[in-house]
Amino acid sequence: MPTSRFKLSAVLLSIVIAFVALYLLLGRDKPVEVAVETVSFGTVKDTVTNTRAGTIKACRRAGISPSIGGQIDKLNVKEGDEVKAGQLLVELWQEDQNAELELATSEARAAEATARQSCIKAEVASREADRQTRLMKDRLTSEEAVDKADGEARALRAACNAAHAKSEVSQARIHVVQAALDRTRLTAPFDGIVAEVNGEVGEFVTPSPVGIPTPPTVDLVDVSCLYVSAPIDEVDAPRIRVGMKAGISLDAMADQVFEGRVRRIAPYVLEVEKQARTVDVEVDFLCREDCHHMLPGYSADVEVVLDEAGRALRIPTEAIMEGNRVLVLTDDELLEEREIGAGLSNWEWTQVTAGLDEGQEVVVSVEREGVEDGAHAVREAQVDD
């Protein structure tokens, strides 16, 4: 009897142990998968970025038009052409000005010939006056003849001077007509590329009335010098200084980040309705040789470097929760919440000054369900490329 009772107790105990084991197995939480990053040393930059997309602009861009109205007679360029400084771009009808120039040139030649004639007569009269003076000394002529010869010589010298002055006036008239003729020719003020042409041969162009802008006849852009103008929030603008380094990113060249330097900070705040107040910051490209494929008007983002730590203990910024807290994956595959000391920071990396050591793993998938302090976790499976 005691043996049977003992056997029964052993069976019941085995059943209880089995139930307890089953309960523990079923009741244990399923581990949550987490993405982790290793705490390591690297560069951390404190940066400021633009609030809205910036724009690539040319250092020199001119919308040029003739200073007088007229009909386009010659159009020597088209959009996309490269031109040199002084190259003729557009020429207005100018037959009337050419005729004026020809007339002025002929008048100048005639005036010069008249001046030569007058001066020759003056020279002859001067010699005659000298001769009469010598004869007077020998009492071979009268005083009246000497006075007459001298007066005629002085009169002809004055006529010579007047003729020379008239010739100079004629030359000045040529310059006036030439200046008017030059106003019918539109030339490039600098080397550049023709971005836009507004007009065709035979069309009339007129200068812009005061206060009323009109499209330029030729829009010329110097693409040898480009910079980025970007709006920075008014809160961040006071921290920026001219000369600070910056990174430039373009939507058109998404795989590259270009080196830049702050060249100018606008001395005023832009106030646009329904938008944050901003300050325009201009950034020069430092690698000019890489700019020949860029076009003014490209959208661009700038990241101004305010401070930089060359070798700092860092973690991804996305791993940091409110209150500078992070979740560390321990060797026991448990998540442990820790508060850290944070130094320099940007959207990608944050410097750790206390609370973590190199080689530890922090969770970057902090928004996932079940990711919390004390949770059982496993590393997310890595997918090979």
Counting DSSP E segments of at least 2 residues, the number of strands comes to 21
Instruction: Report how far the terminal alpha carbons are from each other.
Output: 70 Å
Structural category = alpha+beta
The largest sheet has its strands arranged as 4-11-14-13-12-15
What is the CATH architecture descriptor of the domain at 49-60 and 224-308? Beta Barrel
Radius of gyration: 45 Å
CATH superfamily of the domain at 49-60 and 224-308: Efflux pump adaptor protein, beta barrel domain
Entry keywords:
385 residues; alpha+beta; six-stranded antiparallel β-barrel; four-stranded antiparallel β-sheet
Would you mind describing this structure in some detail?
- The protein has 385 residues and is an alpha+beta fold.
- Helices cover 28% and strands 36% of the residues.
- The strands form five sheets. It has a six-stranded antiparallel beta barrel. Strands 8-7-5-10 form a four-stranded antiparallel sheet, with no helix packed on it.
Brief description of this entry?
By secondary structure, this protein is α+β, with helices and mostly antiparallel strands. Helices cover 28% and strands 36% of the residues. The protein contains 3 helices and 21 strands.
